[in-house]
């Protein structure tokens, strides 16, 4: 059972069929999110797909001792707290009627429906291309963490500067953080912007340095991806 539900090297035909079935199920489960209104067909398809997700979750739970072979007894406690198991559980809960009835406040905010988007992350387990990207992120996590820290620090510093240079353009510090993030990524929505000369100078400097900071992760990921491809070949 574990050999079928766990993605392998492609030599197991039943495992490949199971992977394809799960990918199709994931795709079908997120189709209703492309529409504002739910129909009878969408509700029926959601029940079917969620049932498959529940079966998949239970199968992975009862075979957890094969996944963590060194600690067989502890495996059944450890697995529910793993990243992919949490994603599986989040993909199931929004469609469970008991949970839906207790989340009326969240349904007002469309949170219960939006949580279904996380089902897409279930494809990480079945796609080899995504598996390569995950390996790239794992191998480059130190460099990416350093860049993220640099970007976060730059956003805070830019927000502090512009918030004090031009306080009339921002109602609170969060708006300054929002402006700094938009400027860092050079998106420029134009809903919040400085009007003074000093504020505009800060904006120009922030945008120029933002291009360099945003370009760093792309270079790191590209280099890691090429290394992973070369190692695989």
TrEMBL record:
InterPro entries associated with the record: Ion_trans_dom, VG_K_chnl
Swiss-Prot/TrEMBL keywords: Ion channel, Ion transport, Membrane, Potassium, Potassium channel, Potassium transport, Transmembrane, Transmembrane helix, Transport
One Pfam match: Ion_trans
Topological type in the membrane: Multi-pass membrane protein
Residues annotated as transmembrane: 17-35, 83-103, 143-164, 176-194, 201-226
GO terms, molecular function: voltage-gated potassium channel activity
Compartment list: Membrane
Name of the protein this chain belongs to: Voltage-gated potassium channel
GO CC annotations on file: voltage-gated potassium channel complex
Main location: membrane
Native organism: Murimonas intestini
Start and end residues of each Ion transport domain: 16-227
Gene Ontology biological process terms, A to Z: action potential
